[in-house]
UniProtKB/TrEMBL annotation, chains A, B:
InterPro entries: DhaK_1 (IPR012736), DhaK_dom (IPR004006), Dihydroxyacetone_Kinase (IPR050861)
Protein name as it appears in the record: phosphoenolpyruvate--glycerone phosphotransferase
Pathway membership, UniProt: Polyol metabolism; glycerol degradation
Broad enzyme group: transferase
Organism, as annotated: Streptomyces afghaniensis 772
PANTHER family to which the protein is assigned, alphabetical: TRIOKINASE/FMN CYCLASE, TRIOKINASE_FMN CYCLASE
Record carries keyword Cytoplasm: no
């Protein structure tokens, strides 16, 4: 598999140099792998720190900025960052109001953020954590005990980021982040496998004419493999999976997310089918986002995330945000 | 090649339905294939209309909104829209201040926009045109007499859109659009071919271990085919191609654009190399944009566009914009 890289060993460092060149409003520590809002710490405001394996861009580094994350820690591709990165990030963003760690539910991330929280508290930084586990496809997987964290991470980071921006205290920001996660569900499909730079070839084998339903963001297995389906059939499967599990009564935020190699033309077409199926099931839609936000390198496919939102969550969703990957109102 | 679609015949209509569902701030006429700002026509302001074959999203439909295009006309995949679409768009956005057609230099687009301009003028709409032809790779191609229009289209649409928003008259908006095009150069590379829905398989054959330098946005041939290169080597080739042709003396706007299937992780790494080479050549960078903006369906690869910008152009570039694909300041 051909890649636009120098050598696999420098892929993450090269990307961080490029992020720094494109975004002078961020402080990018390439050596220590921490991306921080240039104006951090912001007096009186809770700091938000997330991170995880690289290869899911713009998640998380592309969501650092006013109204969203205070800092992000990128690991190697599909590999958890280490506690030292998280500790540095926490120290850089803590104004004394405390720090919220937003952790996707993968074993390595959970262990390392736990350790970083202990280290940070030893240094007098107050830390709360929220675990994101929105993927309804499987309960346990290669990488996870329990459900995986995927698209809901964007909703958690945006809404909790707005709550922090409003000056809410740590326990309130953490409670809102947990509320967003509890009200979110995701389901993904893969039309092709992705290739990591280190391996240089597809991480699994998906024959022509088949797709994988319930795929994870590292290409880990899903619920089942089937003969290729239409966009409408895939929308029916994805909407059924998330709606049956969540059973929303309020209007939902919708994220139609590309896995990396699916054209935007196709994602918009898929969004039309998702809306058709949601309407048929009587689920009202409050807001919609279509694009590549939580990706899996060059995987073809898409995921659907819905988040049942009350008035407060909608207000926080609509609040201004200014990051490389998500921006409105400023 | 597997695709997230229903049937090839409805790909464009499905995408328009999905765009409408995601963006209530746009008026999307699915039947007649015209996307218009909901508040058009804007009293006293010049209207901007662009369009071209689908498959390059977010170009052009994703660039409709305040501060950029007033309307866009999507054709079938890689096929020019028809004059009737352009005429409808012009009529929808003309406030009496006239309409600027922004036309990428492909034979079909040029002919159809010419015909639409005549029809519009017959209806009393004043029309000016700007031809975008920034691609330095080849002079004539399968689709073009002269140079092809690619990444500079984004710069033209953004900067001319801001000029129209400031209330400049038609001839001034057209002059600025031409100035942007004249000061822009692009060069693209493909690591893989793209597959159109109608064909269902790659549009050309690119063997493992080779890349195509100077590729067009429809996969049409470039300058040469070579053994696979590193990101740094590709940046050297791309920067040399655009800088030797433009020989900029002012700082440049930089667009590091993904062709559709290249991970953002790789695009940021490529951006780092582009900046390294520009610095070595003494070309100062004023602004940077990294992402998938002018795509070729599921092609892997990237293009580089630079635009030499004076103070006026920079001010117009920085002005607020609110579209699905490009947004800041509002």
């Amino acid at each position: 598999m051909k890649m636009l890289i120098n050598v696999p060993e420098t892929v993450v460092a090269d990307a961080l140099r490029g992020l720094a060149a494109a975004h002078p409003e961020l402080t990018v520590d390439v050596e220590n792998r921490v991306i921080v809002r240039r104006d951090a710490p912001v007096a009186g405001k809770v700091g938000l720190v997330s991170g995880g394996g690289s290869g899911h861009e713009p998640l998380h580094g592309g969501f650092v900025g006013p109204g969203m994350l205070s800092a992000a820690c990128p690991g190697e591709v599909f590999t958890s960052p280490v506690p030292d990165q998280m500790l540095r990030a926490a120290a850089a963003v803590d104004s004394g109001a405390g720090v919220l760690f937003i952790v996707k539910n993968y074993t390595g991330d959970v262990l390392n953020f736990d350790m970083a929280a202990e280290l940070a508290e030893d240094e007098g930084i107050q830390v709360a954590k929220v675990l994101v586990n929105d993927d309804v496809a499987v309960t346990d997987s290669l990488y996870t005990a329990g459900r995986r964290g995927t698209g809901a991470t964007l909703f958690v980071e945006k809404i909790a980021g707005a709550a922090a921006d409003e000056g809410m205290p740590l326990e309130r920001v953490a409670a809102i982040a947990r509320q967003v996660n509890e009200n979110s569900r995701s389901f993904g499909v893969a039309l092709s496998a992705c290739s990591t730079p280190a391996k240089g070839s597809p991480t699994f084998d998906l024959p022509p004419g088949e797709l994988e339903l319930g795929i994870g963001i590292h290409g880990e297995p899903g619920r089942e493999r089937r003969a290729m389906m239409t966009s409408g059939e895939i929308a029916e499967a994805a909407v059924e999976a998330v709606v049956e599990d969540l059973r929303p009564r309020n209007p939902v935020l919708v994220l139609v997310n590309g896995m990396g190699a699916t054209p935007l033309l196709e994602l918009y077409g898929f969004n039309a089918e998702v809306h058709r199926v949601l309407a048929a099931r009587g689920v009202p839609v409050a807001r919609v986002l279509v694009g590549n936000y939580v990706t899996s390198l060059d995987m073809a496919g898409a995921s659907l995330t819905i988040c049942q939102a009350d008035e407060d969550m909608l207000r926080l969703w609509d609040a201004p945000v200014k990051t490389p990957g998500l921006r409105w109102g400023m």
